[in-house]
Input
Amino acid sequence: MPLIVFVALSGIMGCLYLAFQLAAGRRELQSREQELRDREAEQERLQSRLTALENSAPDAVLAISPEGFIEGFNRAAEELFGWPAAEVANRHFRELFPCQDGGECHIQSVMHGSSSMLLGSMREIVARRRDGSSFVAECSASEQVRAEGRGVLAIVRDVSEQRHHERLLEQSELRLREAQQLARLGSLDLDLRDGRMYWSEELHRLFGLEGSDAVPDMRLLLSLVHPEDRDDLEMAMDSLIRQGSNHEQSYRLLPGGGPQRWQHARFVVERSESGRAQRLLATVQDITEQHSLEETRRRMEGKLDQIRKLETIGSVSSAIAHDFNNILTPIIGFTDLGLEETEQSSSVHRHLQQVRRGASRARELVQRILSFSDTPQHEPEPVNLRSVAEEVLGLLSVRAGRRVRLELHESGGPHCVLADATHIHQVLLNLCTNALQAIGTNEGRISVGIEQVLIDLGSLERLPALKLGPHVLLSVTDDGSGIRQQELEMIFQPFFSSRPGEGGSGIGLSVVHGIVLSHGGEIEVESLPGRGSCFRVYLPLARDPAGGPCGEAGSAAAEDAAPAGQGEHVLFVDDEPDINNLVLQQLDRLGYRVSTSRAPAEALERLQADPSIRLLVTDLTMPRMDGERLVRSLREQGSDLPVIMITGFSEGLPRDIMDELGIHMLVNKPLEQNVLAQAIRQVLGPVAETVPDDKNPVGR
Output
């Protein structure tokens, strides 16, 4: 019984224990189930958050299985690739990322573990959209280790537009560099807060620092500027930084062995809201050529002004000389009459001689003025170079004073050339004036040489413009400052002057060169700085057809006695009453019958009314009707009356007009009795052959 009870109790206890164990196991199972449910819920929450995070990411996020199939695809990926996540799932990644050239792509390299150094790094790849279009993307691929292998989490960003803008920026920068290089325009950017400065590539070239490792800064910039411009530039920049907004300034660079370089800089200052300067920006342009052109333009304008002044002086001097000749004519004429009527031993005669000498000097001065203003071409005539040289040296003697010795050396002679006397005078005067300017305020010597030379084949190599045969060599030698070798090559170019700052116009020697060449000659120059210069002019030698001394017949004729008339009736026309009165007395004393008129219209009526008039002597320049119009009207009436024209201008009438109108001679003012008388006799013929003729010449 007790045993039975014990056994029964043991059974009951075992059942109770088993029941307890079962209950505990059930509770444990329930707890684990709850924990599993909680974990799954948490995992779902995490997955939901991860999905939300992936979908909110701006870049495409792709999860790729170890086998290469797409498992995850966020919204940004859907928008980027054009695939819905449901449709792209379980597609192979190569549909979206085709490998280039058959090689292993970035994602595949990560998946195989062959490019561990690329993990998490950005790599530029080519991706493909659903429509088949390709685009440039940046991809960051990270491995996802699993039991079954390596998966990949890829982040993809479309950078095609960025690359496009980068290419545009590169092209723009390239064009900017090319434009700066073409314009020789550089730029700089100075941060005034930390002193750092940036120079463009072209600015390095402009400063001659291309390829240099020099660090750009303000000190380096100023060190490259010419010392004479450096302080001004530095002060201007300091003032601009303190209180200005922009500034422009030109300056020179340090000479580098070549031509002087000029730059022009434009500065702009950027300021904070408080007004403090923060940045200094500048463009720097090489303006050497522009500066040179501007200097040339200024010189040209100055030279043109000089030419205009010369033209004005020429016009004014010609008019003044004409009026002065009209004044001198009665002075010389009446003085000559007074000399004839007074005793040579009387004081009045001596006084009149002084007046006559002064009037002669005034006449020579007027002729020089007319020579200066004379521009038309004249027929070549035999010119004695010694006479020209003596006149030129006489002109220079007052200016040269005692400090400069003037010398004339002639070997043999006379030396005659067939030329325009005024032009030859201009050539020698210009060369001698240049020599005088080269000596300056120092003491010196100017030597004019005249000699005959023979041009042979050897000479033609040096003087190709000449012809074989005898020539006259006219040389001008001085011991002045000389001319530099580089200037000798340009000495005869128009507007070039070796003394631009000393009033040199640069036209004198070019005119000389042109005159010499137009006369069949040649000019050469030798010079050494500090030793002086020698100009040599070669002109063809001419022979006087008469066999006498060339270029002296005119002056000799003026000294001959005035031939007398034989009662011939001469009509003299001039608007100046004093000249009319003078000629009336002069010709009357020589035996002519003289009528005078101050008006050409009145003279024309008198010619028609008086058949006894044998010669018309008329002034060229008169009011209302000039001498040319008077003679033309006379010819239109059918008259062949002989005509002598007088003028106070050097140019007179062109030869073709004189021939057309039948004008026999042209006589220059101031009139001298013997010159006018010889002209009349030459036109009317010798006295013995002159027979009074009462037939009316008008209408013949």
Q: What stands out?
A: The mean pLDDT is 80. The CA atoms of residues 306 and 422 lie 21 Å apart. The chain has five domains: 1-56, 57-158, 164-286, 378-557, 558-689. The radius of gyration is 55 Å.
